[in-house]
Amino acid sequence: MTRRPFRSQAYKARRNEEERLRLYRNVALRLQGWRCLYCHCPLGRRTVTGDHAISRKAGGETTQENIKAACGRCNVVKDTMHWQAFLKLVEAPPYDDTPLARAIRSIAFDRRIWSLTWMACERIAAQVGIDPAPPMLAAFIAADNKGGVRR
To answer: Is 5 helix (H, G, I), strand (E, B) or coil?
Structure first.
C-alpha cells in the first residue's frame, strides 16, 4: 500500500486559491480582448498575470470581479494601488524623476502606441470587410505559443 503524503489545510486552501486565480485570469483575458487592462499590449496565456484590482493587502479577494488580466510589468508597477487610481496615473503620468514615475510614463507611452495600433487594425479590417479580432488574435496566440509576444 502506498502512502499518500500529508497535505495541510493551508496547502489545500492555497492550491484552491491558485486554481481560482488561474480560472478568473483566463476569463478576464477573454473579456478584455486578449489585451492588458492598463497598457493595452497583447497578451497570451503565457504572458498574462492575474491582477487583483483591489489588492489583497487592501482587503480585495480572489473573485472574478476583482481579477483583471495584466502584463507582468503593469502588475508589478501597480503593486497595491487601486486599479482606477493606477489608470488615472497612466492616463496623466507624473513628470517627476522617481523610478515609479518613469515606469508609469513608459506604460503610458505603450498604452498610446498599442491603442493606436489596435484602432488602425480595426479600421483596416473594416475597410476590407473582415472581422478584426480573429486575424490579430491568431497572430498573437501563435507568437505566444512559441514563447511569448515580444514588445
So the answer is: coil
Structure confidence by residue, pLDDT tens digits, 97-145: 999 999 999 999 999 999 898 888 888 888 888 876 654 555 555 555 4
CB 69, CB 25: distance < 8 Å: yes
* Residue 130 forms part of a structural domain: yes
Expressed as residue numbers, the domain containing 42 is 9-145
Q: CA nearest 79: which of 106, 49, 41?
A: 49
- Residue 1 covered by a domain: no
Contact 118, 40 (CB under 8 A): yes
Half-sphere exposure of 67 toward its Cβ, with a 13 Å CA cutoff? 22
Residue 71 is classified by DSSP as E
Could you give phi then psi for residue 38, rounded to 5 degrees? -95, -50
